[in-house]
Amino acid sequence: MNSIKDKKWTHWERRRSKKINSFNFIYIIALCFIAYFPILQSDLLWNNYDQITRSVYPELESWKSIFSPSIFWNENPLALISYFLESVLPFNDAFTHRLLNILLHSGATILLYRLLNRLHISGAFITSLFFAVHPVVVQTLFWPGYRGSLIILCLILSCLFLALDRKEEKARKTALALSVIAALVHPIAIIIPLCLFLNAFAKNKKFKLANFNKVIPYTITVFLLIILAETFENNAVQEFSQVSTSVQEVRPHFLYQFSEYIKLIYLPFGTSFFIPVESNIEINASILFPVLLFAAIYLSLFISISTIWARLLIMGMSVLLTLLIYASWQKSSFLDGSLALDESLIYIALIPAITLVTGTINAFVVRKIPKLSIVWFSFAGLLILVSIGTSISRGMQINGTLKMWEFFNANWSQSIIPKQAISDYLMNNPYGKYDIDDHISFLEFITERDGEDIERKIQLARLYVKDKQNTNASKTYESIVDTNETLDKAILEEVANHFEVQGLYREARIIRNRLNEMAQ
User: Fold this and answer.
1) Spatial CA neighbour of 79 closest among 109, 95, 58
2) Which of 60, 228, 296, 432 is most deeply buried (CB count within 10 A of its CB)?
3) Quick check: 75 and 55 in contact, CB under 8 A?
């Protein structure tokens, strides 16, 4: 029995990667563009409605600003450089931005495919296809400011692929250089030495320190540089920071985020894009179950730690656990600063999560019950088509400016940001399916929540006049002139004329006196 196990381990340790069909790369790129083509139709890019600084790029005067300490150590400089480069291309900015994002995601998927093949993970191509078209990816590709996640993933995958090269010393030196860059731009680079350590653990039957010698340079390099980068970041002048709001002071419960992110990965068919966090989170069975199930499976694998399959699963779950812990400790916000779940935080975590399922099923079916292989491949193909359809559907919901704000308004009904955007759109475009009452309703909601928004109060008063709601118009004009804001003469003239038309001569006289004082 032991001799059979020894033969399996010997074969596993000496196993070589399969030759990859180059056409598979074309399939990956094609599926990526099919799944995400709707987002290329959107004209919205950097906008003033997002009150959270997801990237300082819109505030930078030139590319030279990237190298100031307060920017370089607080942002991904590679992402910022890419934003400046795309701005000089002779194409629509929004189209170019998302086209490059899709190309980066396609490149990351190809790198993943090659890495999984080098790691001898069963079903590497199927796993790569699932990652390529996963619905959770849409937010990272669509919303501006998340290119750093795409770039760091490409760096990590390239580094791991080259580091695992058994022949070329030059490849390993390049991998070490890539680990330096990755560690300087993002702390998630910590998974580079982790993956290399776990690979050595899964690849060798006996635990010998000599098997981990190649991991040591990456461990030292990445840890030291991450500490260095974090130190510089903390010492850098904080010129750019996120909006401070009272709701942001409270961090969502760690277990809540951990559980919700697991659900988003494996059941990505509900809402998306800045998912609202419940105001009163109670740790109940629905939150604890995914966490406890994950922990139970993970710990039970150590019982069979002497087997190849258990070590591979431990490797995958360890990487997934690390990435989920990182995501669950982050504090993400919707456009107005309200706490939200951010799908971009689990973009990289998709890889181990998908690999654990598809790799396990593929290995079991192909090796244990090969007669059912056609059933498994058909089912996997069907799920990939469902994922493509879901991704296309998500893209179609947001590929128009008005459609996107309507989508946000439906999911964030108590936020004024989507209503501000819809109202501004209606001010400059035909109403279409809306009418003046809808527009008034949006502005009433906004001005009730934000009494200092004079511009939209003026818009509301004018709509009241247009809709012959003269009493409401008069009240709104009164609230406008009662503010401490310095009003333009044209606005005061407009208010005075309205009061005179309505027979409110005393109020009109007061406004005329203000105009005379301004003239003097």
Assistant:
1) 58
2) 60
3) yes
Residue 293, CA distances (Å) to 262, 286, 296 in order = 11, 11, 5
The pLDDT of residue 434 is above 80: yes
Does the pLDDT at position 73 exceed 60? Answer: yes
Inform me whether the pLDDT recorded for 252 exceeds 90: no
Q: What is the pTM of this model?
A: 0.91
DSSP string, 71-125: HHTTS-HHHHHHHHHHHTSSS-HHHHHHHHHHHHHHHHHHHHHHHHHHTT-TTHH
| pLDDT average, residue stretch 191-213 | 87
Confidence of residue 244 (pLDDT cuts 50, 70, 90): very low
The CA–CA distances, whole Å, from 251 to 246, 248, 331, 341, 386 equal 11, 7, 6, 11, 34
Q: Is the separation of the CB atoms in 261 and 349 below 8 Å? A: yes
The pairing of strands 332-333 and 275-276 is: unpaired
Q: What percent of the chain has pLDDT over 70?
A: 93
Closest-CA residue to 333 (of 286, 291, 273, 374): 273
- Domains annotated for the chain, with CATH where assigned, are 243-346 (no CATH), 403-519 (1.25.40.10)
pLDDT of 158 strictly over 60: yes
Q: Which two tokens stand for residue 453?
A: 């928004």
Helix (H) or strand (E) holding 27: helix 23-36
362-378 pLDDT, tens digit each: 999 998 999 999 999 99
Residue 353's closest CA among 322, 387, 389, 398?
322
> CA of 488: how far to CAs of 311, 424, 492, in Å?
72, 21, 7
